[in-house]
Design brief:
The chain has 285 residues and is α/β, with parallel strands linked by helices. It has two domains: 194 residues, 3-Layer(aba) Sandwich (Rossmann fold), CATH 3.40.50; 50 residues, 2-Layer Sandwich (Alpha-Beta Plaits), CATH 3.30.70. The protein is built from ten helices and 14 strands. The strands form four sheets. The chain has a six-stranded mixed sheet with strand order 6-7-8-3-9-10, sandwiched between helices. The longest helix has 16 residues.
Length: 285
């Protein structure tokens, strides 16, 4: 898939597949093309090249049918603050054409999933940031979608609230919901996604299971060398002579794929962050 905005290519030849019942994470910094990819999957943006099929429907021709089977959690909060929690869900049950006789059950079910039953009558502007994010997810689930699209689901939330949302997403994945999630949090991708596509400049530079990506690109172990600039330069040269790859992180040099000979330093397990920085040259959260 290719998507351009004038001279800028936002998505550049992306191939992506979300197997049924799995969570696929798009990991990358702002501007990598993650949100544009999400918008093309809901036909909010039309691809310039390539074919897009969502749940058997071809986009953009059959976008209406595809959207009816998808739940979308946008990056920006667009809840109706004039309505209560339950009313927000009821409106979307109507919009998604949940049969009239099933709407009450749909609202109660999603309130329970999002742990918002006790706040059902609260106005949206009375909710905390974490509760509002849970309501956005509940709203996307009200019609029992086959595919859930999460665009930066925990952006701007504190660590404790993020953990709560991770537990909710884990529950949905365990129940067989197919999920495509964009994120710039490495820990989030590693914690939730069965498969991660690392994106940079509109391309997927690596795709696979987190543990497999780590072993393939960064090895099992890393040596962290600390010291003044001349010591770091010496460590880089020593690693290069041994055929080892390195990444500079300010006050240290990480020597990747250590297996035997390596500069002296602190050993640690390789991480998905090592892979991301190695492949893209960018530090992200």
């Amino acid at each position: 898939m290719v998507k351009r905005y004038g001279p800028i290519t936002a998505v550049d030849g992306l191939d992506l597949e979300v197997p049924y019942g799995t969570c696929v994470g798009l990991l990358g910094p702002n501007g990598a093309g993650k949100s544009t990819t999400m918008r093309t999957l809901t036909a909010q943006a039309i691809a310039d090249e390539g074919e897009i099929e969502v749940l058997g429907f071809h986009l953009p021709e059959e976008s209406k049918q595809a959207r009816a089977e998808c739940g979308v959690v946008p990056q920006l909060d667009n809840l109706d603050t004039t309505l209560t929690v339950a009313q927000n869900l009821l409106v979307f049950a109507h919009l998604y054409r949940v049969p009239r006789g099933e709407r009450h059950e749909a609202v109660e079910r999603t309130l329970d999933i999002a742990n918002l039953t006790e706040r059902r009558d609260a106005k949206v502007d009375e909710l905390s940031g974490g509760m509002r994010r849970r309501l956005l997810i509940a709203r996307a689930l009200v019609h029992r979608p086959r595919l859930l699209l999460l665009d930066e689901p925990t952006v701007g939330l504190d660590p404790q609230v993020r953990q709560e949302l991770w537990a909710l997403i884990d529950l949905l994945r365990a129940e067989g919901t197919s999920i495509l999630m964009s994120t710039h949090y490495i820990e989030e991708a590693q914690r939730l996604a069965d498969t991660v596509a690392i994106m940079a400049n509109g391309r997927a530079v690596a795709t696979g299971r987190p543990a497999e990506l780590i072993v393939e690109h960064a090895g099992r172990e890393v040596v962290e060398v600390y010291g003044p600039p001349d010591r770091l330069a010496e460590a880089e040269q020593e690693a290069a002579r041994a055929g080892l790859r390195t990444r500079r992180t300010g006050t240290s040099v990480s020597v990747l794929g250590v297996d035997g000979h390596a500069p002296e330093g602190e050993r640690r397990p390789a991480t998905l962050e090592d892979v991301f920085v190695l492949l893209t040259g960018e530090e992200i959260a």
